Structures are given as structure tokens and as C-alpha cells.
Queue: 2 jobs
Job 1
Amino acid sequence: MVFRHLLGFSGVDLRRITFSWVSAAEGAKWADIVNSTSETIKKLGPYDSYHAVAGLKEKEAEYVGN
Amino acid sequence: MLEIKQKARELLESGKAQVVIGYGKGPNNTTRAIFVRKPEDADKLVLDDTCVQNLALYIYKHEVRHFGKEAVVATLPVLRSLLQLASENQVKDNEIIAIAITPDNKVVELDSFAAIEEHVRLFNTGLTEDEKDLLKKINAMGLEERWAFWNKEFSKCIKCYACRQSCPMCYCPRCAAEVNQPQWIPVAAHQHGNIEWHIMRAMHLAGRCINCGDCARACPVDIPLNLLTYNLIEELNNEFKYTAGLSASQTYVLSTWKLEDKETFIR
């Protein structure tokens, strides 16, 4: 709860993050959660604002040569 | 201020303390931490509005412990840090003498956690209205705007780790940021790593930060780091009615389960 809130406060899109508690005996619940989460994310499309930042990392890796 | 000097001299002369950690004059009208070990040096101590650094940072450093029994000139954040450190088993009861000021400007000597707890209760320990307003401002931003705001702030970060070094709660001998097998947090000051570092640092202070503000003051590029910790303080207060640094015996909020805890985030 606290971490989720911190991410939201830092401007991360919370619709893309799911926290859940699934027991090893709850296979169906697990499938449900994964399906619904990936469906929501597919609907939202690529996370461009994050990729823009993550891309900087790749650029820097090129720059330092590794 | 005179009474602080007298109290420090008294403690050093009587041998009740071997070192007094306090504020002294620094260059350019600033104040800095000083470590007084001789009674005649007690005159160097000052206490005014510029004395904002959290001196609790020094109490558990082995270089300072080496001097012997410690006394510390304690403002409210120092006292709360002491209690928080005590609840994390970093300081023992009766190990440190706090020289504190009551709300009516009297100097008192607090030598046990019970005495410090009682003293802290005399003060307001919640966020101030100004601090809450700053939080509201960020929370009122839209998602994209908030992301852009923090990206702009974090892009200034040069990964000097002054926020970590200035924080009394960051006492791990080896920080996760410096572990390189595996490398959890990228070392270079690129944007991706900066975001990770700052979110991780804030999260490690959840339920532990006592809001002294030293991280933001230490930051050489003025990132408003205390906004992140205000947010956590507010959130823990709302969700768990929890405030750090009020008692030496309170358990860590994120590792304790209580019947009345809300579990609304789990589905």
C-alpha cells in the first residue's frame, strides 16, 4: 500500500501496476489476475513516458561503450 | 545558550559524559557540528536558528563512540531520531545523555528513553500546514505532469549520495546502492538510475523518517527530497495511525500486522 502510494506520488502510472496475494493453491485466481492485468495494460498501450526515460539508459550504455 | 554551555561543562567536568556533540561556529556565519571533549571548550557551543542539522547522525559513529560516554545537544528532530534509532536497536537506554530545551526555554538533561519520550510529547510532531500544502500541490497534478515534475527534479541528481550520508536513519554499513553483485541500482547518474535510487531511498525511510529535512538541505542541486518523505509520513499516518520516533519501544510499522490494519490494496 505504502510503496504503491509512493510510486503514484512519483508520477508512475498506477493502472499498470497490480499487487495481489495469491496462495499456491489458487491457480485460477492467479490466472485471472494475470489476464486482467495484461488486458488493462494492452488497452493502455505502450508506456511511452517511461520508455523515454529507459531509452536514456541505453543511450548512455552506448556512450560508455558497454 | 549560556545554560547549554554550563550544562555541557558540568557534564564534562563531572565525568558524566566524555564528549558533548553540539553546534559550533563554522565558516561564513554558518553553524556546524562540533565535538567538545574538554570542559573549557564548552564555550564554543552555540544554539540558534541556524542550528538545523540533525546531530543524531553522529551518535552511533564508531569514531564518536570511541570518545566515551556521549551527550548531545538535542533539538526535537534529534530526540525523535534517538527514539527511532532506539526502536531499531541502534542505541541502548542510558547510553546517551540528551541536552534538550523545553517549550518554555529551559535546559533539561534527559538520560533515559522514558524521559525523552515524555519530552517529545510536549511538542507537535505532525506535518505543518505548509508541508501539507506542498503535498496537496503535487497530488493535484495530473499523471503526466507529476511524472514530468519528478523527472525534471531527478534529472538534476548527480548521485553524490549526500541525502543518504546526511540521514541518521541510513546507517547500513553497506548500502544496497553500492552492492555490485548483483547490481540492483545503476551507479551512473542517468535518469533511469536516479529515479530508482530516489524511490528506493524514500521507501527505506517509510515509517522511519522523523522529518528533520536534512536530506533536502544536504542536496547540492536542491531536489525537494523531503516531499517524498512528507508523502510517506502522511500516508502512514492516514493508513496506520503511525508516527515514527515517538517511542523507543514501537515496532516497525511495515513488518507488524495488526487486526485493525486495512487490507484494501489486496484483491
Note: The beta strands of chain B are 19-25, 31-36, 45-46, 70-74, 96-101, 107-110.
Job 2
Amino acid sequence: MKPPVIELDNLHVKIGKREILRGLNLELRGLTVGLLGPNGAGKSTLINTLLGFWKPTQGTARVMGYDVRTDARKIRANIGYMPENDSFIANMPAISFVRMAAELSGLPPDAALERAHEALFYVGLGEARYRVLGAYSLGMKQMAKLAQAIVHGPKLVILDEPTNGLDPQARVRMIKLIQEMRALGNMHLVICSHLLRDIEETCEEAVILKAGQVVHYSNLEEERSSNRRFVELETEGDDGTFADAIELLGCACAVTSPGKIKTVLPEGIELRDIYRLAADRDVQLRRLNFRRDSLEDIFLKAMEK
Amino acid sequence: MAVYKRTYRGYSGPLTSPTWRFTVLQRYAFKAVFKSRLLLIGYVACFFAPLALICALYLNQNATLLAMVGQKTGFMKIDAALFLNFLSVQGVLAGLVTAFVGPSLVAPDLTNGALSVYLARPFSRSEYILGKGMVLGTMIGSITLLPGLLAFAVQSSLVGWTWFVDNLYLGVGITLSCLVLIAVLMLMGLAMSAFVRWKIVAGALILASFAAGKGFAAVINEVMRTKIGYFLDVQHLLSTVSGALLHHPVTEGTSPWAAALALVVFCGFLLMLINRKLRVCEVAG
């Protein structure tokens, strides 16, 4: 088994007198982890704790095996962080900003410059890299923040609301980029977002926080594969026996309304068997879709806990 | 392969020493500071007085040139008072430099939330403060400490080893006075910049803390018939400490020890202010 990237053991964090994180226990091993939760759930506090900005009041947090209490510097050397808010120097060209970020992570000036060019091309800002950051659009600023987060080749990248305020096109670009980074497989990603769709499209694991506690952990990959055999059908020309025929195949089946059937395909039964059955009985399949618990369903259920 | 064709890759090359990493920030801050031509002109102008002093020191020992204008060598008395006056003039210029440069160091980072980008790296808050502070420190040092020591060295080389040995306390005094001045102005520049995020207001506040401090001190001393007011006058405190270090005590006002203690308390207050303000913005979400 792969060693966990993030390990939380009864993690408590207090800011002032208010306890924000209340006994978090987690082991995250996936390449991409989504952090979900409503406002005030403790997502940003958790990120800040992982970065060593806040010290745990109780329990431990480890990132790549390093304790946040004692090895914050080592952790930060291996992390790239893309903050949620504007975090740049407005009158600095993007290339200088990203180069400076790389140098602060310890890269020699020449290597930092080379990688700053690479990172900016990678995020799609190659042609605009000499423009000052203050003149960038919101989407470009987000990309510049991503470039500074990955320029030093971190092993773990934390993205805080990466699609915040982006128009649909820019959002798609950002999601595609995150998916590309995931596909490269040489870095872990933690994505903190309010947008369930973003997490669903990019993450393998999702952690839902509520009031400083983990209310749900979900391995999205496993859920996707376990629920993919839940099928909804809409038929035409069925004399009411099609559902019985499906049951005879060994599938659990329910007729919700005339012509509408819900079924779960067991091991060994494939969709082609349903098609064949429909063809044999001269039943038209007007609609067929896999229905699975969406992340939204999971999130809403978790919020009810 | 062309840069634009490269895909993302990790980095496994050598890393720079963490000890000197604060100089990265200093280097970039210098670039940003000297983008302003006005400041560059002002900074160059700060070297006119040192240049004039060094010329005067040279002239003071050049019998040939002095004979042409009917003067003898040693027309100018080279003593602690001269160096103290020189440091006072340069100190005022250093204050102006602090008022112009200081606010542009920290305030933009706080306004733009850039602290989280710096501090999410293997780079501490102390290193950030040191890196930014060194910009002011280097600039103030270059217009006070460096010319002061250069003038002392020029005078020593012109007059000889005996003068150097007899007046070594001046060299030590210049060094210590300038270091105190650098520390106070550096902390003041950073603290005001962190406390007031508007650059112009922060600059005005730095200047006001000198001018208003002097005014308040005078009013308090006059109304209450006391010397307590001097503790509000940073300029007076600095002059008193410098005077004592150069063995040329300032007769009026507080004692050098009291002035030094007041400066320590003032610096402590500024450090506390910096510590409170320079934190990564927390969103409890």
C-alpha cells in the first residue's frame, strides 16, 4: 500500500478561543483529493495547518511523513500552494513573479528563470508572460497563481478554489489542466472547492468537512465503479412483461411508471444482454442511462448528518 | 527542446542555501524600488554631502591648494562635532529615504495578499522581515555608515597613523551610531508600511513621527516644565545616543542611557507591531 500523503490523527486546531478543527482523523493516499464543505467548515484552516501557518492544539498532522509541528519547512519545500484570493504583486511581470517564487523555494536563479518560462507556457500564459500581473484578467491571474505553485516541481500541490470566479471557458481550461497534471502522475493534488462538479471531474477521493469534522470520506473512483451498473430504462412497445424478462436474467428490477424501469445489473450481466432481450421482444429502448449517486447526492447526505 | 513545447516536469537539481535565501527578496525589492527615477535621483543626491566632506578633508590637508587661496592646512577642525553634524545631516536624508522606500516594501504585499505565496514556501516570516528590512538597511547604510567610515578613513590616511589611533573612538562611534540609526529606521519603515497599507499615508506617517514627535516633545516639556517630552522625540534620542558614542554629549535633554533605553523600548514596540501585522491572512472557512 502506498504511504499516505496526508495523515491526520485526532487533529484539533483552535484560532483564538474558537475551535475550528475538532478531531480530524484521515489518511489520504490518492493522487487527487477533493476537500469539500460549506463555509466555516474548516477547509482553509486545514490547509493553513498543513502549510504550518497554524499549529495543532491537539493531535498530529503529517504531510508526506513530516510532522506539521516540527518539520513545517520541509513540508513547504515539497508543497506548491495556490491561494484562493489574489496573491501576487500587481506591478510585477508574471515571469518575474513566478521566477521569484521558484527562487524562494530554493532554485538557483538560472534554473528558476528557465522553469518560470516553462510553467507559464504550461498553464497557457506563454505569450503574456512579460505583462504585469495587475493587467491580467481574473482567469489569467488564476493561471499565474497555478504557475507559481508548480514552478519548483512540488510533490504535493494544494489548490484553494482554483476555478473561483472563472467564466465557463476559463473553468474548462483550468479543469483540463488539473486533469492533465493528475495524468502525469508525478504529483499529488489537493483541491479545495465549493463546486462539487470541479471535484467530481478532477478527484479520486473526496473529503467532506462540516463544523470542523470529517462527515464523509468517499473514494470517488470506487463509488463510480460500484454504482455504474445502476440502470434506468425508458421503453416503448412493452406489454408489461419486459421487466419480468429482465428479472429472469437475474437483475433486481422495479417499474416506477409505465414504460420506466430501474434495474441493477449483477456481475456477469452486461448491457448487451438488455439490448438483446429488447430486440427479441421487439421493445424499443427510448432512453438508457447509468445512474449513480452524484457527488451532490453524497454531499447533501453528508450535510444531513 | 523549445521551452513552449516542454510539458510539466519535476525539479531535482541543486538548491540554494536556505541561510541566504532572504537575499532573493532583497534583490527583487531593490529592482522594484529603483524603478522610480525620482527616488534614484534623490538617492544619488544623498551622496553630495559625503562627497563635499571628503573633498573638504582632502583640501584641509593639501598645503599647495590652500596656499593658492591664502589658507593654511588644518583650517577646518576635524573632531567629533564635525562627524556628529555630518551624521545628523545624513540621518535626516536617511529618514527621507525611509519615508519614500519603506512603504513600498511591505504594504503592496499585504494589500495584494502576497504573504501567503512567500510563506507557503520554505521561507519564514523572520526571513521575510530580514529580506525586506535589508533593502532599507543597505540603502541607509550606504548613505550614513559607508560615507562616515570612508571620511574617517580618508582623514586617517591624510593625517597618519597617530591620528587614527588617537581618534579610533570616532570610527567606533560612527559605526555604532549608524547601526542604531539603521535599526530604528528599518523597523520604523517596515512597521509603518505594515500598519498602514496606503503607501502615501505610511510615508507621511514616518515623516510625521519625526516632525510631530519633536513638536509634541517641545509642547509637553514647555507646558509640564519637564524633560519627559524628549522621549517622544526620536530624532533627539538618536542624536543623544550618537553624541555619547562619539564622545560629544548633547547637553540638553535626556541622559544617553535613558535615550538608549527609550530607543530599545521604541524598537521593541515596532517589532511587536510588525509581528502582529505580518501574518498570513486567515479565512476561517
Note: Residues 9 and 75 of chain B are 70 Å apart (CA to CA).
